[in-house]
Amino acid sequence: MSTEPSKADVPIVVEFTGGLELLFSNQRKHRLLLPSSGEKGQPANTAFLVRYLCENVMKDKRKEMFIIDGTVRPGILVLINDADWELEGGDQYELKKNDNILFVSTLHGG
Amino acid sequence: MEEADLYSIEGLLQILPDLPSLLHHVSSKRLKMDGGYTELDNDQQIEQVKSHIQTIESIVHKLKSDLTEMEAAHAKGPAESENWRQQSEKRSKEVLDTWMKPPSRGESPSQEEPNQGESTRRLSQSEYQKYGRQMIMPEIGLEGQLKLKKAKVLIVGLGGLGCPAAAYLAGAGVGVLGLVDDDTVSHSNLHRQILYVEGGVGLSKVGRAIHILRHMNSSVHYEGYDYRLTPEKAVDLFRDYDLILDCTDHPTSRYFISDAAVLTGKPLIHASALRTEGQLMVLNNPPSREGNNDEGYCYRCVYPKPSPPASVVTCGEGGILGPVVGVMGTLMAMEAIKILVPTTQQADAQVTSPDDHQPRLITYSAYSSPSFRAHRLKGKRKDCVACSSAATITRESLESGSLDYVAFCGGRVTYDVLKDNQRMSARQCKYLFDHGKDPHALVDVREKVQFDIGHIDGSINIPFSDISRDTDASMNQLENILSSDGTMCSGTTLHFICRYGNDSQLALRKILELPRCRAHKDMAKYVLCHGDNLYIIGRDIIGGLDAWRREVDEDLPDY
């Protein structure tokens, strides 16, 4: 896959489960065109994606249910193509075309 | 039959209508045990049928004599009747035990299998019969069954996860099954907690679970712990077991069960479920030991920090579908069997690969496609406070109770958010509606699906989730409803109700925080302004609809 920055938007799939979908219009799967670079020209990485989701996709005003201290709140796992984002470089991972990003809120019920 | 209580006359009476098919079943079962007619010569076949007829006649004879005794005992009054019942139960058991047993072909049991002495047989005949279907699987085999028989498994929490997990592990024939729960059975449990029946409501879950599990498999030794597990008790209890299943429902127990499993070196199967989804992880497998810290990861490796309390939803609040949590409990039992009988130790096991030890989170989402997914996890954290070489959590800190798990998880959420003069009882509210001069409106803040199950006549539904998402917009929505109703004009006082009186307080507080909500000097009250219209902020109903049902209208659905 090319490492050159692309001018085009990056098509990705973002999914929410474990109750997070309730914060995103009760919709589990979102197909997004992520701008290929951030506000200050920085790469479109997962840190940027989290901010982008919070500002552009999340209609719910309870932002603290998704973001605390600038990153996803404790109790949410971020999975990039079904792997823990910490295996992929965490919030510095640069999103590629057709990536699947899944946000899972931990459940406690039993 | 609810209690499967074949040993009492009541039980026998209940199965009377099914007796012909039951007798046929038993007769053919006995035939199977004996190897079928084909292996027998003519004389033996005749003997067989005679013996079956004899058995059936003895049962009919017993029922007849029981009936006579029963009539006589009942005629003498309740004391004698009870005495007879107890005696009869004992005798029935003896008869039925003989009835269900295959007839011995020789004179003594040792001649049953002449080529195999008692000492070489590693399971009892009834165990071979019970576990045959799983023992013929190469994954289990005789050695695997013996491992299961030696295994001690502890299930913490006997809810929607614990019930199916316990049923399958009892069925699989583990040696000891420990069961911990301090709760009693309630009607709201029955759609998913499959070990309980309506007659058990109000009784101890541990007691009822062991009762039914014994009927399922009496070969297992059951240990009940009818108390709430605490960090102080966990370490001591876990020591006695080989494997722990976390079937609890709260973050605090999730953390201390993981810590205690790490400290005692026991693998931990962790699962949870809510609404339409479930999650499962196999933790501390293989267990972390000193100098061996590259092994299994723990709950804290995955979730170093707990979720904020506001994001923790229980099954009581969020709801749960029975089969969803049932699937997760069943998966736990399967993972338990895999740990107790490792396939790598089987001669023909070529199926495992190094990738099988990759840390994984299994998720099940009933309404998604695909429903099952496995996600690769990072696994062990080098700086984990529980299971790494840098661990700071010790056995002493758990046993002394110095670790405050409740505080760690953000403390208990308290709902006393309003002052007393901002609240009123259901009865007061009803009085106000019936006799008040000014117009009043009741805003029900439960979710629509709950509102649709049942609500107070005339109440208006503005869901708490809408109020939380956007308080201002939700109040516009309310105003639209009020202004379209001629009787609820400007000046209407708004009161708030929810299921138990928690969300309604939070809703009222959020509304008070709106910029357009302000203190009105003349009325000495808070008012919500909407253009030219004013709405007076009234009170929250203490105890919610639950209290309304107790104090005002008992016909309101108790869901």
Summary keywords:
heterodimer; A: 110 residues; mainly beta; Ubiquitin-like (UB roll); 5-stranded mixed beta sheet; two-stranded antiparallel sheet; 1 helix; 7 strands; 11% helix; globular; disordered N terminus; B: 559 residues; alpha/beta; 8-stranded mixed beta sheet; 7-stranded mixed beta sheet; 42% helix; 14% strand; ubl conjugation pathway (chain A); cytoplasm (chain A); Ubiquitin-related modifier 1 (chain A)
**Superfamily (CATH H level) name of chain A:** Beta-grasp domain
* CATH topology grouping of chain A: Ubiquitin-like (UB roll)
Main β-sheet description of chain B: 8 strands, mixed
Residue windows where pLDDT falls under 50 for at least 5 positions of chain B: 102-118, 345-350
Record field, number of beta strands of chain A:
7
- The span between the termini of chain B is 27 Å
Fraction of residues in H or I helices of chain A: 10-25%
Low-confidence stretches of chain A: 1-6
Side by side, the strands of the main sheet of chain A go: 2-1-7-5-6
Q: How many angstroms separate the termini of chain A?
A: 43 Å
Please give the radius of gyration of chain B in angstroms.
Answer: 31 Å
| Sheet of most strands of chain A | 5 strands, mixed
Written description of the protein model:
The complex is a heterodimer of chains A (110) and B (559). Chain A has 110 residues and is mostly beta strands. Chain A has one helix at residues 46-57, and strands at 10-17, 29-34, 67-68, 71-72, 76-80, 83-84, 100-105. Chain A has one domain (10-105): Beta-grasp domain (Ubiquitin-like (UB roll)). Helix content of chain A is 11%, strand content 28%. In chain A, the strands form two sheets. In chain A, strands 2-1-7-5-6 form a five-stranded mixed β-sheet, with no helix packed on it. Chain A has a two-stranded antiparallel ribbon with strand order 3-4. Chain A starts with 9 loop residues before the first strand and ends in a 5-residue tail after the last strand. The longest helix of chain B has 35 residues, at 42-76. Chain A binds chain B through residues 17-19, 22, 28, 59-62, 64-65, 68, 73-77, 79, 82-84, 86-87, 102, 104-110, and chain B through 157, 159-162, 246-251, 254, 271-275, 277-279, 302-308, 310-315, 318, 320, 325, 361, 363, 365, 368, 373-378, 465, 468-471. Chain A: Belongs to the URM1 family. Chain A: There is a cross-link at residue 110 (Glycyl lysine isopeptide (Gly-Lys) (interchain with K-? in acceptor proteins)). Chain A: Keywords: Cytoplasm, Isopeptide bond, tRNA processing, Ubl conjugation pathway. Chain A: InterPro entries: Beta-grasp_dom_sf, Mopterin_synth/thiamin_S_b, Urm1.
